[in-house]
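pinned: reference chain
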Amino acid sequence: MSHTPTDTPDSGRSPVARRTVLGAMAAAAAAPGLLALSSPASAAPAPQPAALPGGGDLGPNVIVFDPSTAGIQAKLDQIFKQQETAQFGTGRYALLFKPGTYNGLNAQLGFYTSIAGLGLSPDDTSINGDVTVDAGWFNGNATQNFWRSAENLALTPVNGTNRWAVAQAAPFRRMHVRGGLNLAPNGYGWASGGYIADSRIDGSVGPYSQQQWYTRDSSVGGWSNAVWNMVFSGVQGAPAQSFPNPPYTTLDTTPVSREKPFLYLNGSEYRVFLPEKRTNARGVTWGNGTPRGSSLPLSQFYVAKPGVTAATLNAALTQGLHLLLTPGIYHLDQPIQVNRAGTVVLGLGYATLIPDNGVTALRTADVDGVRLAGFLIDAGPVNSNTLLEVGPTGASADHSANPTTVQDVFVRIGGAGAGKATTSMVINSRHTIIDHTWVWRADHGTGVGWDTNRADYGIRVNGADVLATGLFVEHFNKYDVQWYGERGRTIFFQNEKAYDAPNQAAIQNGSTKGYAAYKVADSVTTHEGWGLGSYCYYNVDQTIVQHHGFAAPNKPGVKFHDLLVVSLGGAGQYERVINDTGAPTSGTSTVPSTVVSYP
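pinned: its structure tokens
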């Protein structure tokens, strides 16, 4: 996401906006007093690498507070000052609060900053104060407030309402707000978020200028308005279904969900909690005491620090350890290979994986219950065929009882420097749950251009029975989402087509004008989607026409609910919404064209 011009170009805002090492080798020595009868070359067994340790220090960029810590506000302010405008910087921070009560804090969050409580329940860690995201750094425009998060805290806002004016890749998980929540920046400037899950907002949520939002398995005291696309599943207190006026898409429950793993303290021991799978979920997981699930001690994790090699990470996985990626940037010269069922790869503070020399950053085997959460993959300058692969090609095992989850795993191509990838994320394993991702070919920053950060495809789903809850995919050169697996489901989709197409010919798809944002393969017989939006802003050639935002086979089992396409300020147009259905977008008015039900 980036610029979403709901004003005219002369409105005063720039149209540019929007967006360890392996241990020492064991010495081998012959037992004393024995005569060596073999040749020198075979006199001793080959040395073996020492086992990698589990647990340990979380590193300098994980900052842990308790209620008696001196100077908490000063430390929060110091990190915010450093990170406030560092959109493509290298700083990464996790701010962790031990259970207890904290008074008079305002934790302002900048880029690559995560704040979280260390209790089993959000109510174990209470802040009488605020966790704030605003857009003063960008003249009141919140559309580039990416890559930050809040988790597992109870807030009592100073003025009764907490401000959380974010854009993509900024999850608000497992939070209890004892008051209201304002999702708009001060001054009600442009805003383009966002995602809430497993949270309780006692007061009302005011999205105001937020163009779209997805809320899952939560409780709200009210919801005040909508701009283009507000989607709710399993939310107590959600507004009733009313798309397109107002544009609320409301599902009573979420078909399948499993909350993100999180770090917590059991006494003085760090553990990682693994929430259990829920079906037809509604409301928070933590409302009646201890949440349901299991936990692992930190001693079962290899605690990775920036500078570690991919070979060491893989050795840790082979040894049976899980991975905890502490904040920082990790260069990989080979894929991280997850082969063991139930493996957890958990990032803190937006730990960032950069694949070098065109490798894939991370792959999983076709096994049960892998949990990938809380990290960013940043494409390298040499083209990677893929950046993340869940399951190998042809994966077919049934994982319905214990699916793999991909949660708050974000992908970026360009922006921090030239990056390239053919297909960013490939989902081959059946029953995978993609729960909140932003897969982004950058439209601003460095290393950005139609061929400079070339990335043809965002997400390709080959596996059957895959569910996406909170899918944000933007700016790819061809298809943003391609879905080949049977019985796929998506609840909430947000997309912008690539801004920087040089001309109509550059996006021509055979006889079709442009590539759909969301394409269901012609071979698919069953698919369903709720609350899906695609926007165009062709700012290089504003005469470009996109035939439709969505393409799918005309079959009884392929169903869509509450679709919209929008031309942002008239920079390019859509002729239809889905296939040949739906009205064209209308000039410069930035008014959505909608389809309530398809077919």
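why pinned: DSSP finds three helices and 44 strands in the chain. Residues 566 and 592 are 5 Å apart (CA to CA).
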